[in-house]
Structure formats: C-alpha cells, structure tokens
C-alpha cells in the first residue's frame, strides 16, 4: 500500500503547472457516446477516473485509444453493442452515471446501476431522472438499477430545483438529440459546463447560454468529428495556490484561467496573501501571516465546495477564528477529524465548522477521506512540524496527476512511500 510522507517547514518557490480539468474530461468523454464520429483529445490527464470512464465506454463497445506518452485520446462510438454499462465500473465512480443521457438520447434505452453515494454525501440522482423524464423518457428504478426508454426525446422546459452540475450535464447532453428545443432553467454555471457545451457545439450540437442559469439546446440530427482541448483544472490551481500561501512561499501557478477561480483569489487576498494575475497564470506570495476569513460554499460563481477543505487547512494556521459553512454537500467535513489529529482546533456544528487558528500544527498519521480532503492534508503537512503520513492516497490520485512530483518541483519535502 502506498502512502504520502510530508515533512513540514519548507517554503515553496518556483513554477508549477496545472493540468486539464478532471470535471470537464469526465462528462465530455461520456458525451462522445452521442456521436458515431471520431473525437480526438490532447493533454488528457492520466487520472484513475479517466481510465474508469474510458473503461465504461469500452465495455459498451466504443473504440478507445489512450497514448500515455503523448496524453492523446481518441474515441469513436460508432459500434456500441450494449446499453447496459458494467455495474462494477459504474459503482467505482459516480461520474459514470453521465453516460445515461447520451445513451438514452441516441438509442432510446439505457439500463444503469444507481451510482453509490460517497463520503461527502448521499448524492441522489433525482434531478437527473426528473429532467430526463421531462424530456419524455419512461423511467423505472428497482433492484439497484435505473431503466429508461423512449421512442425519441422531445425538447421541453426543465427546471432544476438545485443547480446540480451532473444533472445539468446529463440533461444538456440528452437534449442535443431530442426533437425541438430544450431550455434548462436554474442550470449549473460552472466553467466545466461551458467546456462541455463547447465540445458539444464542436461536434455539431446547438447549445447556447452555457455558463448562465438558463441553457438552450436545439435538437440536431447528425454530428461530426472534433478535436477538443480541455480547460485547465481550477481546483488543482486553487490547491497549489494554497500550498504557496500556507508555506509563506512565492509560487507561479501556470495554465490558469483567473476568472475561473475568482472566489479563491478573493479569499486568499482577504487572508493577507498577495495574488498577482497574469494572462494564464497567477503568482501567489505570502509572508506566512494569515488572517482569518469566513468561507461559505455555494454553486458557481460562489466559493467552490471542492476548495473548502484546502482553505480550512490554511485557516487552521490563521491568527484568529474562521467560520466555514458547507451548503452544497451534507457531509463534507470528514477532514476535520484528520486535521484535529494534527493539532487543529475545529468544532463542527451541522453545516458549520468553527476553525480557531493556531501557529502550531504537528505532523501525524492521517487518512484521506475524499479527493479534496486528501489534498488538504498534504497542505497541512507542508506547514506542520515534523512528519505527516497520509494513507488511502488513492482518493488523491483520482483527481491530481503526480501531485507529489509537482510539489517536489517547487521545494516541498514530500514523497510517496511503499508500506
Ligand atoms: C460535481 O459533482 C463534481 N464532480 C464534484 O467534484 C463537485 O463537488 C460538485 O459537482 C459540486 O460542484 C464532477 O464534476 C465529476 P451536484 P455532482 O450534482 O455533479 C445534490 C471533486 O472533488 N443533488 O452539483 O455530483 C447533491 O446531493 C468532485 O472533483 C441532488 O439532490 O454534484 C449535492 O448536495 C466531488 N439531486 C448537490 O446537489 C441530484 O439529482 C450538488 O451536487 C443531483 C445532485
């Protein structure tokens, strides 16, 4: 079993490059099922989750070629043989559920196992199913599966009770082959939704309004080939920005769209960290003195829930008390217990965490409880006195390509160890 060992105290300096956005790559790969033409992608992040979603497509009959040397991916779904994705694969990763919309839209039927919940919440799919049935699908659930069928989806007005990212994606993709016009109201506005819409339009779909709370999709009859370049990963960028701040460093984070991480920039500046913006990079300079700031997670453009645990690591060493409000997921404070093992003073009260900053964190044996919590533990370890050993690092490797190597490159004393 591998663990990550971090020895705290180094100040990080230098340049670190962000990869493509995991939460763009997964829905876009799923959406290739709409088309019988070849889709080519470059600079694909070779993450465990990317291999899971491409395995799902292969299990359905798609031609998938990943070249690890060039990070190029070619997919052609002109020979789909099954409409029932492997339950084992779907169970591995929630985002596999995003194959439902394209399969239903193109073939009029799909049978897929219900995605598991995970540590951060029950993560229901009621909004996905409600939206697809509004487009005319007959949906039955039972025995741990969802079965949906239709003659042809019909465009409709879909209102989302919550701006769910996944539900917006599943419905937007399905609507591309529906008959007529669909409008998704109260849609998610994340940059990954815009990236997906840009991919869909590049294969001949007609999607407008992505990035706002109202997305219009005109159904089309045929699609074409495409080459797509993904947007950079705003959460990986934010994670590296906090790494510089928590170590009193001076780091240039490259391959960044500053507009995608406005809330993180604003909160770091409020905490006394200097953030200088470039065209596609940010420079983060800290003198190690961190002021407390309150964080309330919200759907985009609010503060991203995927950066909550990383900011909590930083606030654990602030010179005052911060209040964290997690409004997106009902159970996204599992990292608190792990931070406490390192000496952090944090109290949980429902959706609130009260973080009393202190200048001392000590290294400890801790466990990654989800992808972003694991990354946050690395950040705390970069500051803590002594050694921090992080187990269950498979969580971290789902969303960060070579985070150990990248942090070593800017001076972190960090390594992966076999235990
Ligand atoms: C996406 O998950 C991301 N994953 C998550 O990133 C991210 O945290 C989340 O959006 C919020 O930004 C991918 O894009 C692969 P949601 P998703 O549907 O689509 C409730 C990471 O670390 N909800 O917007 O599953 C749900 O319970 C991961 O990279 C319903 O009630 O998120 C949650 O409370 C973690 N019914 C809230 O909406 C539904 O049908 C947000 O979920 C769907 C969702």
UniProtKB/TrEMBL annotation:
UniProt keyword annotations, A-Z: Cell cycle, Cell division, Cell shape, Cell wall biogenesis/degradation, Cytoplasm, Peptidoglycan synthesis, Pyruvate, Transferase
Known catalytic reactions: phosphoenolpyruvate + UDP-N-acetyl-alpha-D-glucosamine = UDP-N-acetyl-3-O-(1-carboxyvinyl)-alpha-D-glucosamine + phosphate
Residue positions of the active site: 118
Xref: CDD domains: UdpNAET
Annotated residues for binding of phosphoenolpyruvate: 22-23
Family named by the database record: Belongs to the EPSP synthase family. MurA subfamily.
HAMAP family listed in its UniProt record: MurA
Protein name as catalogued: UDP-N-acetylglucosamine 1-carboxyvinyltransferase
């Amino acid at each position: 079993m591998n663990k990550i060992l971090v020895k705290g105290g180094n100040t990080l300096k230098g340049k670190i490059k962000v990869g493509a956005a995991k939460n763009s790559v997964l829905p876009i790969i799923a959406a290739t099922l709409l088309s019988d033409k070849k889709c080519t992608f470059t600079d694909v992040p070779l993450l465990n989750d990317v291999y899971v979603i491409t395995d799902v497509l292969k299990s359905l009959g798609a031609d998938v070629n990943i070249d690890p040397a060039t990070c190029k991916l070619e997919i052609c779904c002109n020979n789909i043989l099954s409409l029932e994705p492997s339950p084992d694969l779907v169970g591995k990763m929630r985002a596999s559920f995003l194959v439902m919309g394209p399969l239903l839209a193109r073939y009029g039927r799909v049978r897929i196992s219900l995605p598991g919940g995970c540590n951060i919440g029950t993560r229901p799919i009621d909004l996905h199913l409600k939206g697809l049935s509004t487009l005319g699908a007959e949906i039955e659930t039972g025995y741990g599966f969802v079965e949906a069928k239709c003659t042809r989806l019909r465009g409709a007005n879909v209102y989302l009770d919550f701006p769910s990212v996944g539900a917006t994606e599943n419905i937007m993709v399905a609507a591309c082959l529906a008959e007529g016009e669909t409008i998704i109201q109260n849609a998610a506005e994340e940059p990954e939704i815009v990236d997906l819409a840009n991919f869909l339009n590049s294969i001949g779909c007609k999607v407008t309004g992505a990035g706002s709370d109202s997305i219009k999709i005109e159904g089309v009859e045929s699609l074409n080939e495409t080459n797509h370049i993904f947007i950079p990963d705003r959460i990986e960028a934010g994670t590296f920005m906090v790494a510089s701040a928590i170590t009193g460093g001076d780091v240039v984070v490259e391959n960044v769209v500053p507009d995608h991480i406005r809330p993180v920039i604003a909160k770091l500046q409020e905490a006394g960290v200097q953030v200088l913006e470039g065209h596609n990079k940010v420079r983060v300079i800290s003198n190690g003195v961190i002021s407390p700031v309150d964080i309330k997670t919200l759907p985009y453009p609010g503060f991203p829930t995927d950066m909550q645990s990383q900011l909590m690591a930083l606030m654990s060493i602030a010179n005052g008390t911060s209040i964290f409000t997690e409004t997106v997921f009902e159970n996204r404070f599992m990292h608190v217990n792990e931070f406490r093992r390192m000496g952090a003073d944090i109290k949980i009260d429902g959706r609130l965490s009260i973080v009393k900053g202190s200048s001392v964190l000590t290294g400890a044996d801790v466990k990654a409880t989800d992808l972003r919590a694991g990354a946050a533990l690395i950040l705390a370890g970069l500051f803590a006195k002594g050694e921090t050993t992080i187990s269950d690092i498979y969580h971290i490797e789902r969303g960060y390509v070579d985070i150990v190597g990248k942090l070593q490159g800017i001076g972190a004393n960090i390594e992966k160890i076999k235990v």
